## 1
Amino acid sequence: MSNRNLWGELHEEPKAKPPVYFLREQASVLTQMTKGVLVGSVDSRPQAGVFLYDLDITAPALGSYTLSVVSIRHDLKIYPVLVFTEDERLDCSNEEELLAALERVLSSSRVRGAISSLLALSKAK
Amino acid sequence: MKRAFTEYGKRRGVRPSEGVSPLRNVKFLFWNLGKRSLGVQVADLVQEHEVDVLVLAECSIPIVELLQRLNSGNQSSALFSVPPNPASSLTILTRFPTNSVKLVRDLPGVAIRELALPAALSILMVGLHLPSKLWQSETDQALLITRVARYIEEDETRYGHQRTIMFGDFNMNPFEVGMVAAEGFHAVMDRRVARKTKRQVQGEDRYFFYNPMWGFLGDSSPGPSGTYYYDSGRQVNYYWNMFDQVVIRPSLLDRFQFGELKIATKAGSFELLRKNKSPNTKAGSDHLPLLFAIDLEAN
């Protein structure tokens, strides 16, 4: 006797990339750009239906000092995604807004200044 | 008679007691300046209380001006300098060699450093300025605190000890969920409970902090009833809040100098409280400064 399907028809995997994909992509870009002097990584902490990811920069030469640059948060629906830093919170309804928000944060003077400092401190070691 | 100098430079000036290692009483000052120009008041507090490590939140004083104020006057003391601080919004200065304050981690509003002085016990120092409840939901606050608590544990594992002291503007009272919950900072009011080190919650070890600030709540204890005064006008209105706190892991209980823990109400000649005992925002900040000390002498 065949099993009864109570799930209905399952949807295919969505074509949209999950937000964490873009964080991992930028983590990899940073590592390559700095030739490993700084290492980008993504820390994930799902909690009770909330998906929380931190984009971190680690400086191996500085005792693996880690700087959390930006965080994103969403629930099972994926969008809207909240992009947040110490100074701001940006609600993103779709992938385009998410990418714009990430670019704004990652290319900000605060983040670029931090990266410059970490590179200089690392190279001075 | 001048005290003996340590191997890493000059320390505070003449003290009545001779032969007392300065590492026995390493002094910290935390103050949320509320973006006010309080350089004179900061320098007065530092000099009066012989502060070694200064951590400021919402500091808009240019660092050069701050250093000049801190380093003028008493030239027999070691000068303040700025350890590497690539990303934190907190301003951190110290009399110790800058290479004794090592970078560990920064995340929004949180700076984790290792304080590793020569011939002294190393500790993890967590400076905080958590977001105000005005700018975030309870969910945001709970998630942030859980993250911070987990990062602290990760760094403690990495450094192989739990000699951690956490201080700053938590934007929470000692009794709020984020401070007391096992998934939060798990900061308890009783040393005997804290000395148990940990308890199991839902199968996981959750480590305690001890929070001495409970003992400062209200007007039955000496000093002000809190560190931040706010008349919310709401049903639940505490008026005085203890947002600026220091909490310590149980392994530092015997080294924390409880007699040195103070909420400052004066900075030199400046009265930081008005006659009605609310913070004097003309002479000071809307937060009161927090002073404490710890014995870091290696046994």
## 2
Amino acid sequence: MFSRIANWLDDRTGYRRFIRNYRERVLPRGPSWWYTSASCLFWLLVIEAITGVLLMLSYSPSLSSAWASVRFIEGTPGGAFIRGLHYWVAQALVVLFLVHMTRVVATAAFRAPRELVWITGLLLFPCVLVWAISGNPLSGGQRGLAQIEVESRIIGSTPLIGEHLRRLLLGGDAVGNLTLTHLYTLHCVVIPAGVLLLLSIHISQVYRHGLAPTGIFKRTGRPTPYWPHQTTRNLIALAILVAGLSYAAARWGAPRDVPADPELEHVPRPEWYFLALFELRRHFSGDSEIIATLVIPAAALFFLLALPFLDRVCPRRVSVALRTFIVLGGLGAWGVLTYLPWSRDRHDAAFLAARAEERRLAERAYLLASAFGVPPEGGAAVLRNDPKTWGPILFRRHCAACHPCTDAAGRGIAAEERSAPNLWEFGSAAWIAGLLDPERIAGPDYFGGTNKRAGDMVETVRSYFDGLEEQERRDVQEKLRLVAAALAAEAGRPGETLSAEDVRRGRSLMVEEFACTDCHRFHDEGELGSAPDLTGYASQAWIEEFVADPERERFYGDNNDRMPAFAAAPCDAAENTLKRSEIRIIARWLRGDWYEANEPASPSRAGRSAAASSQ
Amino acid sequence: MGLPGVRYLLGAMNRSADHEALVRRVARLDALPIGRPVLITITGRKQDGWATYSEQPLGRVWLLRRGGESSADDGSAVLALSATCPHLGCTVGMARDGAAFECPCHRAAFAFDGRRLSRQDGTPNHAPRDLDALPVRLVRDEASGTTWVEVTYVARPTGGNA
């Protein structure tokens, strides 16, 4: 029954001839583990194609959707493994290519009649590199997009056609949405088509002319059939390789990048296989840089392409010397040029710190995305809506000129020219107690740098302690501690626990004993105008309004010292220094109000509430 | 199919700059410390392929307020330098010692006035030209009495002379 189907098929397609061609392959001097590189390369390419297609099912190439869709893939069952395998196999492809080329050069397998095998094989290497260049930015992370920015400018420096090539690649004159679609098309269609063409010529030529003897590695050995001796070696080598790569994919996976954002600090570096060129260009500058980026690589490529023909005119000894020079010299130079910048970066503390910070941000982005999802604006919005990430950045930019935010050990954000109160744990019972401490209220952490250091509040607080004995001072301190608790209850910092009894007593002390409401408004007592409103003191809404305009009657009014209004005009007008959403982030950060792992991911903990998303 | 295909590809190449020269109020004069550069981001409307964004970062600028007296309308009180390195487009940051600018990509160093500096380890400074200076104007808002720093942001191509 089967033989009849097989006969029918063979009559139509002639498939038996292909199988016979394979079974008739002869190893001129017996099998060798060196021959396995070819088979492994082929099957790794097949794995890349399969994992690639699987990834394509869920990936979306645009600046706003790239990072989000990659994160989505990482979250799907098996997605992280598939993506990890795609990444690790790609790294292995580069290494295996070099191994394969080394073997071919060392054994002079490029000699006639196999020149076309050599040429098509050699041209496959730039294809693999372009695959890598086009693939890395697709993840939408800082790393890949910074790389394509620099790489496109290197292409742009090519004489005459450089600028046009760059624009064609980027889809304009800057990296944007079209850049990702162009890279995606290159990566999934153009390069695969080129590789298929080159590979089919390459393999058919190998079949036609047979395998070259492995020269220096195996001088003896009798002709042996390829199947099953070499085939088994191929399969064993492949199995070991794939097992190792699968382990890497499962254990570490592909890099999880921080979402690309031009306002986050990043130190760009090329991938490891380009570090040699990166190092080479250090020694050229200005107009001569093109020697490192274009001339040397092109010259190397043309030299290697011409190798079969050069070898033909060389006497045997020269040929051996030449091939030894190419293999040892080429690999050696490449190895040294790769090691130097890697080693330099490894010993650069600032570089390592920057990379460690990026890893933390990437983890934070993944954590927040798992908890709250990714908005349509894309990955960058995940971190921009996060008070823990973006709060300090905004604070440094807009507040740290005057306000420090440092703890007792001095850790945190120092002020440029310190003059305003230290906002570390602002609105906590401890902070308020410090304000009500006569020793500290006029000190550098509170009013010391402002016009209030000789003002009514300082006088009043000191007056509570005037002429008192040790025990009486402690009583007053205890009462002020209760007042601080009452005000901290107004602030409502997340994570602060206050005793309801303390708060109640503190409130009555404020009104009765200390007469705070003579100057301050506090719920139903007191009036606005002479001192800041204590209702909702240091709460989210209070801080937002204060930062928007401290000269409102509700706050300092005409007594404001130097703090500018950051959003005095209504509705995010152009005159405002900060947008309302930015003030909200700063306020949340000051209040310690952000999401941490192991909390329930309720919408109120998200970096931005749904209702206020338009501001 | 050939001719429209070629036009489609060429169209991809010839897409013009995503934005023209932008004039932006970027900072209040009194918010800038004297003698110490501040890095700010210029945002604006951007057409990116099929999408139009209303507020996208378009470029980053170092602002340096110089000491000494200067009249209100004279832009010389503030120096604005494009933070895009003229070598290969990375964002130029602050050097470790805080006394100069340094590009993290190939460590080109620039003085605070934008001039290229030679590097201590002897390797060449890769920048083909100094940091691009941008036109600056001081604008006084009569209503609020604040003086704003207004920068005209222009993106120049990297490499060679501007």
